[in-house]
Amino acid sequence: MLARCSSAALRGLEARQVTVEVDIGPGLPALQMVGLADAAVQESRERVRSALRHSGFRVPLSRVVVNLAPADLPKQGPGLDLPIALGLLLASGQLEARLLEGLWSVGELGLDGGLRPVRGLLCVALEARRAGARGLLLPAANAGEAALVSGLPVWGATDLRSAVALVQGGEAPPAAAPGAGQASRLGGGTDLAQVQGQPHGRRALEIAAAGGHHLLLVGPPGSGKTMLARCLPGLLPPLQRSEALELTRIHSVAGLLGEGDGLIRQRPFRSPHHSCSGAALVGGGSVPRPGELALAHHGVLFLDELTEFRRSVLDLLRQPLEEGEIWIHRLRQRTRFPCAISLVAATNPCSCGWFGDPDRECSCGEAARLRYWQRLSGPLLDRLDLQVVMRRPEASSLVVPYRGPAPAGHSNHGVEASDQVAARVEAARQRMTLRNPGGLSNGRLPAQQLPQVLELESAALDLWEAALAHRKLTARGGERVLRVAQTICDLEARQRIPAAAVAEALTYRSFEGLGGA
User: Fold this and answer.
1) Which long-range CB contacts under 8 A does 43-46 form with residues at least 24 apart?
2) CA nearest 18: which of 60, 76, 62?
């Protein structure tokens, strides 16, 4: 007897419908799997047999062929265990075919018949709704994730026996509640009120948050680079639902959603170690998986000790930083991962870390410092809009937190907190949304649209032209000066860009031309 049931296979951030065909015919007892199944799918033969037996169902003692169609689509992972088991029950007459019409199923089976969660359920649920499925049968641990997709009944089961009981009941169970999400703005990050001193760095961080600009912090050890970077997620506007859903899909495919987790409501902050590989940073593998770049989508990617990363790894960032997405090509597939991030990088000014410090002597010579900066390519530095030199904070600013609470009516001894700065950032973002095509931030605006969007005063245009000529800025570097200047104006609610905004933006190009070729 031939039986069919519907499931799905992941392909990057998308799910593709898979039809599981099961045929029981004459021959010696065996179960053969065809249809480009990887090792995890091939091993489902043993899991399914054991799960059927321990759940009280009959295991067919005949030759069984399982075809996973379309045959040219690679299938990975254990998510096809449940539809294969249901197909065997249909083909052996233990379940009526009409009960599974229009019903999709996905889930991993334990040897005892228990259903275990699988990754990428949100992508499967979106594809099932698009295909017009009447419901999705899945592990109960994934029900909250799949319930984020409205208009699709979700049938959560704890084991194979309860899954069959749900199907035989003929009625959809009560709607599953979406998993709880974290709603905190800071998400456990650092509040800007904890950063003492560093007015230049705080100002650059506010501009980076408002315009979606990339930021490089250069300073001696202990100057507060990491603390300042960890404040950035708390300055960014809250995630919109469409952004949160896209980010949740990425984390679901990566297998980072825990049981009961729902929509991700806070901006991510990813900080990979400098020893990470190219595949770990931008994604990859024989079966492409998202890397740190995609996991930081709509959030912050922090690269501490930037010069300790391998140069070949850092250069992989050049195109994604421009386009906000990365394409990974493999023999049988081409996968897209979105990565609209705010990059924050931090490094010391030289190998010993003390170049430029008035109270410490640098032990590096000029040649050593040049070799140190040649670890970074010029094109990568060119893409960092804000390049900020930080100094060791003054002693008077470090002792402020130990002098007791701030006087009544004052905010932490005059230091602004994240909420105060975030309000200005959100107002600036709203101005960009109304002015820029597609509501893009200034940092993401295509270069060809800049002349139509930016309005420069004559003095500002003259200053910018002089900077292009005398500072030998590249075309990209010059454009980024204008983007930063426009963001400064948006923070100040100005319509036209004055010379003062261009002058301030030029102060953030401190390391022009230092990178290697």
Assistant:
1) 43/78, 44/78, 44/80, 44/81, 44/84, 44/109
2) 76
- Please give the helix or strand (H or E) that residue 336 lies within, else none: strand 334-338
Residue range 42-97, pLDDT digits in tens = 999 999 999 999 999 999 999 999 999 999 898 999 999 999 999 999 999 999 99
Query: How many helices and strands, by DSSP H and E, does the chain display?
Result: 21, 16
Q: Which of 4, 135, 30, 17 is nearest to 79 (CA)?
A: 17
Task: Give the SS3 label for residue 360.
Answer: coil
- CA 109 – CA 81 distance, rounded (Å): 6
Q: Sort strands 14-25 and 2-11 into parallel, antiparallel or unpaired.
A: antiparallel
Residue burial 447-466, b: 16+ Cβ < 10 Å; e: rest: eeeeeebbebeeebeebbee
Q: List, for residues 256-280, the tens digit of each pLDDT value.
A: 988 777 889 999 999 999 999 999 9
C-alpha 20: how far from chain center: 32
Q: Where are the beta strands (DSSP E) in 373-448?
A: 386-389
3-class DSSP state of 20: strand
Instruction: Indicate the SS3 state at residue 173.
Output: coil
Residue 333 has what pLDDT?
A: 80
* List of residues 6+ apart from 331 with CB closer than 8 A: none
Tell me what the pLDDT averaged over the chain comes to.
90
Q: Which is it for the CA torsion 392, 395, 401, 406, positive or negative?
A: negative
Q: Which residues, in sequence order, are bridge partners of residue 270? A: 301
Structure tokens given for 81: 């265990």
CB atoms within 10 A of CB 430: 13
Continuous segment of H or E residues that includes residue 343: strand 342-347
Residue 394 pLDDT > 90: no
pLDDT tens readout for residues 290-307: 999 999 999 999 999 999
Cβ–Cβ under 8 Å, residues 377 and 370: no
* Residue 27 neighbours by CB distance under 10 Å: 11
- Displacement of CA 103 from its chain's centroid (Å): 31
Q: Tell me, what's the pLDDT at 10?
A: 93
Residue 71 burial by CB count (10 A; 0-12/13-18/19+): exposed, middle or buried?
A: exposed
| Inter-axis angle of helices 81-91 and 160-169, nearest 10 | 60
How much of the chain, in percent, has pLDDT values that exceed 70?
Answer: 91
Q: How far apart are CA 248 and CA 148, in angstroms?
A: 10
CA 450: distance to chain centroid?
Answer: 27
Residues 6+ apart with CB under 8 A from 498: 457, 459, 460, 489
